[in-house]
Write a structure and sequence with these properties.
single chain, alpha/beta, seven-stranded mixed β-sheet, four-stranded antiparallel β-sheet, 23 helices, globular
Length: 670
């Protein structure tokens, strides 16, 4: 009971701290989906280190050295509490975000997480010594149950009711309780008898093929987890709820596979898995359902569950004798860390698109073909057919992704592509900037008049067009959060100042070298690199007439830019009658009530300007929703705004205000 309770609490804390710490640092790095992927790499690497520590410590099991060492480290970890990262780690804009995130996580939560990571295999080894003959692998299921409860509890019980500071305090006290329990277990566990070492020797050397399969199965499950999570968060929002749904399914498969009651059986799983591999391959290449969120969730989340159930079920079937337990878990964690490294670090360096999902599905198909070959003859040939099919889908998706692409680049903040259409020097000549799968601006390049044409979300009839035109003839100071192609600079007149904020230096290079809005503008154009909110917090008041908030990552929203505290920062930088313009067009989320509420909370007024053109007659305009916010109600009654049909935005009195500590995506799903 004591071993199970300690393992349960350690795993609960291990997975509770993941969304907690990631959520705390997410606003510092632009709300990018890659923040979670990088955090997962850190967690998996430290999990590997913890398992290696448990494996090495087991060598000293015949002496009390392991109890002394572990007790000293636990006391050291308690001294480092609380785990809240220091404000000094906030980036200035020029740092490598991956390296900075890994470093700040190491300093903030490194030692406590390392010891939590080591706890499950270490206590299972101690359990084997204390109760020889009992099955220690069932404790692995207990461990994953604790993790699962933490993941399910965080978005529904912890995040809605506790702010960031309260979450840190709660976690730190629970860790202190865990440390006390673990010290008690360490000193109550008997030392290992000499026969245990003889047992390992008698087993003979491990088969290399088994170790390779352990690594491959574990790495494939990890790649699928991170790739599916990336796929979902890029087009909605990078928030704990969408991080945790895939991770919960991933952990549930560990529980099912390792519980020990034979719930995983390849003879019934193989047809279901192969069908789902085909369905996921179909969505990779199908355009009709690319932005259909229910369909994407209905295919990829069960697909992730089935793929990971296969990987982890096969791992359990390949498990060694209990004497080699720590080495087995070390190999599993090494595979998980390898998968994290491939997605978080290697993929952005090697790929110019999001190809890791297709690559992960091909790896899954290959492993299924290997492991299902022995089920029956039909399963053997069906799995080979599924492998060929998913490989073809992944290859086609890669080729299609680069069609009409002039420039493609990928980094921590996502994939950028410049697509080119038409013939140079003709009216049809067009360049378009695409972030992920979403168009972020375009420019016609036929002649000078075409180049200065306002297009897509920034047309004169849009909300931002109305806000800028409402300034009148006086020189205007305009701030823009989110550069894109720089289309808004086309509004610039002599004497105006247009200041753009963007977190991605590649966006600036593309806007300057692939489009001409910035260089053609008559206004003075300024570029500020770094997260816009952090930059504005550091700057003195800019006295903007209009400040546009248009920082989208693919079709996702950086939540930290649309909170009550964020609007307070923006209002500090606009004139008393200045306007903050929120671009809230979104396929999946209804952001209008969110902005209306944070405006009210800041004592400001708001109007909605909706532009819904007939795409057949005016394909150069895009449908847009802009919410304009000002402390001066008269500013929102200027003719340029009223003429565009400005109306009071809908509020939802029953909804909680979005703050830096609280947001709720479920409420605003369309």
């Amino acid at each position: 009971m004591l071993y199970g309770a300690t393992i349960f609490l350690s795993s609960f804390l291990l997975f509770l701290v993941q969304p907690l710490i990631a959520r705390l640092i997410l606003p510092w790095f632009g709300g990018s989906a890659a923040v979670w992927t990088t955090c997962m790499l850190f967690f998996q690497a430290l999990l590997l280190a913890g398992y290696a520590y448990a494996h090495l410590l087991a060598k000293y099991s015949r002496r009390r050295i392991e109890a002394l060492v572990h007790t000293a480290l636990l006391l050291g970890a308690v001294v480092t509490l609380p785990i809240s990262p220091s404000e000094a780690w906030k980036p200035s804009g020029s740092e490598d975000p991956v390296a900075l995130i890994l470093l700040l996580l190491g300093v903030s939560v490194g030692l406590p997480y390392f010891l939590l990571a080591a706890n499950s295999p270490l206590l299972q080894a101690w359990f084997t010594r204390a109760r020889p003959g009992e099955n220690p692998y069932r404790l692995f299921a207990v461990s994953n149950l604790g993790s699962l409860i933490a993941l399910l509890g965080y978005p529904f019980l912890v995040e809605p009711f506790l702010g960031g500071h309260g979450q840190v305090v709660l976690w730190s006290w629970l860790f202190a309780g865990f440390a006390l329990l673990c010290v008690l277990v360490a000193w109550r566990t008997p030392v290992a008898p000499p026969v245990a070492e003889a047992e390992i020797t008698a087993l003979g050397p491990l088969a290399k093929s088994d170790v390779v399969l352990w690594l491959a199965l574990s790495a494939t499950g990890s790649v699928l987890l991170l790739a599916v999570t990336n796929h979902l968060t890029q087009n909605v929002a990078s928030v704990p709820l969408l991080w945790l749904a895939p991770l919960t399914l991933y952990l549930a498969t560990f529980i099912i596979a390792f519980e020990g009651k034979g719930w995983y059986r390849p003879d019934w799983l193989w047809p279901i898995l192969l069908v789902w591999i085909g369905a996921m391959g179909w969505l990779l290449v199908d355009n009709d359902f690319q932005f259909d969120l229910p369909v994407q969730l209905a295919i990829f989340l069960p697909g992730l569950f089935l793929g990971c159930l296969f990987c982890h079920g096969e791992l359990y079937r390949l498990r060694p004798a209990p004497a080699r337990l720590t080495g087995f878990y070390l190999a599993i964690s090494a595979g998980g860390a390898l998968g994290g490294l491939l997605v978080a670090v290697l993929a952005p360096l090697v790929f110019t698109g999001y190809y890791e999902l297709g690559a992960g599905l091909v790896a899954l198909g290959l492993l299924a073909a290997i492991r299902f070959a022995g089920v029956n003859l039909f399963a053997r040939y069906a799995s080979l057919a599924a492998l060929l099919g998913i490989a073809a889908c992944a290859a086609y998706d890669g080729m299609r992704y680069q069609r009409d692409v002039r420039v493609a680049t990928r980094s921590f903040y996502g994939v950028l592509r410049v697509k080119e259409y038409g013939v140079p020097n003709e009216d049809s000549h067009l360049r378009r900037l695409v972030h992920g799968a979403i168009m972020h601006g375009e420019q016609y390049l036929g002649d000078e008049q075409s180049r200065r044409m306002l297009t897509t979300y920034y047309h004169q009839d849009s909300g931002i067009g109305a806000a800028i035109r409402s300034v009148g003839e006086r020189p205007a100071r305009i701030g823009i959060i989110g550069l894109g192609t720089g289309t808004i600079a086309a509004y610039g007149r002599t004497g105006d100042i247009y200041r753009f904020y963007d977190i991605d230096s590649r966006v600036m290079q593309i806007a300057l070298h692939e489009f001409t809005y910035l260089t053609d503008s008559k206004a003075k154009v300024e570029l500020a690199l770094g997260d816009a909110r952090l930059t504005l917090e550091r700057e003195p008041p800019r006295n903007f007439d209009v400040l546009a908030v248009d920082a989208f990552s693919s079709d996702a929203i950086p939540v930290h830019l649309i909170t009550r505290e964020a609007l307070a920062v923006y209002l500090k930088h606009v004139k008393p009658d200045g306007i903050v313009a929120f671009h809230v067009s979104n396929r999946f989320l209804d952001l209008i009530p969110v902005v209306a509420r944070i405006a009210s909370e800041n004592g400001a007024h708001a109007v909605l300007v909706r532009d819904d053109p007939d795409e057949e007659s005016d394909h150069r305009r895009s449908r847009t929703d802009w919410v304009l916010v000002s402390r001066d109600a008269a500013a929102l009654r200027r003719p340029a705004i009223v003429e565009r049909g400005a109306v009071e935005p809908e509020d939802q009195p029953d909804w909680r205000t979005w703050t830096d500590d609280y947001s709720n995506l479920i409420q605003i799903l369309k």
